[in-house]
Amino acid sequence: MSNQKDKGQQSDAHNARGIELAEKGWLDEAVNEFGKAITLDPLSIHAYGNLATVLGEKKQFLKAFEILVDAFKKDAKDPQSAYFLASFLSSKTPALIEQLFLHAIELDPEFTEAYTGLCDAYIEIEDYAKAREIIEKAIAIDPFDLQLKQELAVVFVESGQYAEAIATLKKVVKEDPQLIDAWLDIGMAYSLQGFYDESEKSLFKALELDPESLTAHFYLMHLYWLSNRRDESLNHLKKAIEIQPASMRHLLEEDDITSSLKQDPEFANLIELLFTDQSKEV
After folding, report:
1. Is residue 70 scored above 70 in pLDDT?
2. Collapsing DSSP states into helix, strand and coil, what is residue 195?
3. Residue 90 lies in a domain
């Protein structure tokens, strides 16, 4: 019992010393002290939290995450272990995701799915320069993968470079005219530029490939509403609801255009019916 108490006191001393070193900016030394504290007392949750904090300052987010998960596993009933892990994830998740994808790429430099995942992560935080850089590296690895080129087009769309997106996607459909997603993306990019006629042509090309494409009908509903072709917009809304009512509920909940559509009584009644009649599930 006395030995255990001594170890606990020694652990606290190393933890306190680690805090002092960290405050002075001596991060490597602080890491060593926190490590000693944990070795002496594997249930010293504060030492885990302090160690993870310093590792985060050193940009070693993956190691910090591993430390906090280990602490949580050791004593999941301690509210501090849950707090430290949750606090880390709430502030460091984008950086952690980046390091995980980079780790996957380091393990397999030709793992293009990891490049795409990292690209999506950069898009999520609106770092379009890094998103373009990483997906272009993937394209260099596999220049015949059309999905990678479509991902590059997504980067262009999200960063407002619509002309570049269209040029990229036109090369994609030239190589494979059957790629419906590429036609849909071309239609969306043209619409965002205000080129409604070109958008319509691309979206109808998508419908030729799949007459039941929910996305094509949804985009056409958008397009016709914006171009004051009300009846055609309504027809495509009806068709989209007929195809996948549950998905349309989600899309309309998330879409900014819904409030505008509801200003039209017939649209409003149709949308209200969609949300009240929950039996219309796919």
Report:
1. yes
2. coil
3. yes
Given a contact cutoff of 8 angstroms between Cβ atoms, the answer to whether 245 and 229 are in contact is no
Calculate ∠ Cα 241-160-136, nearest 5°: 100
Q: Give residue-wise pLDDT tens across range 253-262.
A: 988 888 999 9
pLDDT band at 4 (very low <50, low <70, confident <90, very high): low
Measured CA to CA, the distance from residue 156 to residue 168 in angstroms comes to: 9
The span from the CA of 82 to the CA of 176, in Å, is 50
In a domain, 25, yes or no: yes
CATH code of the domain covering residue 47: 1.25.40.10
Domain count, the chain: 1
Identify whether the C-beta of residue 224 lies closer than 8 Å to the C-beta of residue 240: no
pTM of the predicted model as reported, rounded to 2 decimal places: 0.81
CA-to-CA distance for 203 and 188, rounded, in angstroms?
8
Q: Which of 35-44, 72-81, 150-159, 221-230 has the lowest mean pLDDT?
A: 72-81
Structure token digits, residue 215: 């996305």
User: Domain containing 47: what range?
Assistant: 1-94
pLDDT reported for residue 282:
40
Neighbours of 169 (CB within 10 A): 29
Alpha helices in the chain (DSSP H): 2-23, 27-40, 45-57, 61-74, 79-107, 112-124, 128-141, 146-158, 162-175, 180-193, 196-209, 214-226, 230-243, 245-254, 258-261, 265-276
Query: Does residue 277 lie within any of the structural domains?
Result: no
Angstrom distance (rounded) from CA 94 to CA 245: 33
Helices 79-107/112-124 angle, 10° precision: 130
* Residue 66 forms part of a structural domain: yes
* pLDDT tier for residue 280 given thresholds of 50, 70 and 90: very low
